[in-house]
Amino acid sequence: MHWIFAFGIFVSLLFVFVISYKNKPSQGPNRFGKTASPVGFTTAVRRFFTGYFDFAGRASRTEFWYAMLFYVLLLFVLGLLNLPDIIVSILLVVTMIPFFSVTARRLHDTNRSGWYQLVSWFMPVGTIVALFWFNEPPSD
């Protein structure tokens, strides 16, 4: 029964890659905009929330990792506060979209499509590959 689920995930991922390959953005330098500049923690957190639906453009390594640090600290604090589940769920849903957008912008900075963040959902190999992508220097 588990192999059916795994096969379904594999087919879905293959479908997404085929669609993203057909709708591939233009090739060459600066296809996602100019290279992002490094930022500090407060600027990264501000961009995390102000770029809520901004899936275009680029995010520097520092912006991405500071945003992830903020997200992990937020999750840690939510766990410590022992809030009702509905409040925690609402907060997680509210921060889920900026999480995906900053991840897409970081992949754009490495000259990859934002759809490649789906690879990180497949543990452990996909997560390891995605971590290497997120840590790459910017490329044009």
From TrEMBL:
The keyword Acyltransferase does not apply. Keywords: Membrane, Transmembrane, Transmembrane helix. The keyword Methyltransferase does not apply. The chain crosses the membrane at residues 6-21, 64-80, 86-103, 115-134. InterPro entries: DUF805. It comes from the Bacteria. One of its GO terms (cellular component) is plasma membrane. Signal peptide: none annotated. This is DUF805 domain-containing protein. It comes from Advenella kashmirensis W13003.
